[in-house]
Amino acid sequence: MRFPEDVPVLTDDVVTLRAHIAADVEPAYRMCQDPVMQKWTTIPVPYLHEHAVGYLTEVIPAGWRANTSWAWAIEYAGEYAGTVDLRDGEGGVGEVGFAVSPEVRGNGVMTRALRLVVRYAFDVLDWNRVIWRAYVGNFASRRVAWKAGFHGLVTIPDGGRSRGVRKDEWVATVGRDDELEPKGTWWTVPVVEGEGIRLRPLRESDAQRVMEACNDERTQHWLAGMPSPYDLDGAKEFISSRADAAASGDAVSWAIADAETDELLGNVSVFGMSSRLDGTRGEIGYWMHPEARGRKVMTTAVQLAIAHAFRPVEDGGLGRHRLVVRCADVNTASAHVAEVNGFTKVGDERRADPRRDGSYDNLLTYDLLATDLLSDDLLGG
Ligand SMILES: CC(C)(COP(=O)(O)OP(=O)(O)OC[C@H]1O[C@@H](n2cnc3c(N)ncnc32)[C@H](O)[C@@H]1OP(=O)(O)O)[C@@H](O)C(=O)NCCC(=O)NCCS
């Protein structure tokens, strides 16, 4: 192929993909100064002007001429907005890579550009599958890939390489016959308020409070699967695992925070929602920071979680029909939270809940059906 004459222009009328031109070097160089860009991609750091010149005027044209990689400039609102490329298409399977400049992010530009190149890969390059890879934690990239139909996400420990350092990597793919639309649910974690508390997404700055709550003797006793001791890294891992659980459709997990100070008081989750067969059940789990116990905070938090869980998906809820709570029969505080929220005890499994010392407690199951809640106020009005 000749460059730039043979580079096809792809457009959906909002975003246009075209051959790079000399005038793109400056904005591409500026984009690569962005710390987010440097964190999530393999570009050289520090990123020099000559890197942009070399990539745009030598590497990209060479790829087109040799028919080994295909990179387009992303144009949005008449300006260069980023670059997207396809590469390594041997055997009909290849990879996609992309970046847009910070000013245009969050407008759906990348999702549009990604759909255009994936279609090109299938229709013109005759690929059967496109692979997306990102370092673990790059949720913006994961969301773009998810919106464009990539699915079957797996994590490969140390699968990625960044300037000589190995990093855990996410990989997902989209096939020729797939629709370029989301597969599976990505839950959002809404902010919900009531009776002096706020349910909100967990954030990194909660790590210290999470660590304190999870190191507490009673939390450690009843939630015996937790790491022990529970350190700050464990708390950070827990917080990022909750974002992952929402993205994979499994769980919505909130920080229970004081409505005034926003300080974390505990955690409540609706989880176990990724079954392909049954999209109507969920389990509620919780723990409380020791300083916040005994004030009915968890009772209120669970009430708010129930209301969100039973609300139909089209109204922004989780569309659940049946919720369960499980706890050891001797964990009276936890059983109380379920009972005062209207749950019915439906199971008592003998010696089913292991403790750290090798002993077992009986495990109670409580359930609550959406149809049990005739009273409007339990559903939040
Ligand atoms: C990844 C990137 C290309 C996305 O570009 P973009 O134009 O903002 O993408 P879109 O607007 O099409 O979609 C981004 C989505 O991610 C969401 N998002 C952004 N940050 C997020 C986060 N931390 N957690 C969850 N979702 C996030 C946005 O809300 C948006 O979703 P929505 O439209 O449903 O609200 C851009 O962030 C970027 O250039 N990052 C640096 C380079 C990079 O990471 N490249 C990919 C390497 S694998």
TrEMBL record:
Keyword Transferase annotated: yes
InterPro entries with a match to the protein in the record: Acyl_CoA_acyltransferase, GNAT_dom, N-acetyltransferase
Keywords: Acyltransferase, Transferase
Domain N-acetyltransferase: from-to ranges: 15-172, 197-367
One Pfam assignment: Acetyltransf_3
Domain of life: Bacteria
Family: Belongs to the acetyltransferase family. RimJ subfamily.
Name of the protein described by the UniProt record: RimJ/RimL family protein N-acetyltransferase
Organism for this UniProt entry: Kribbella aluminosa
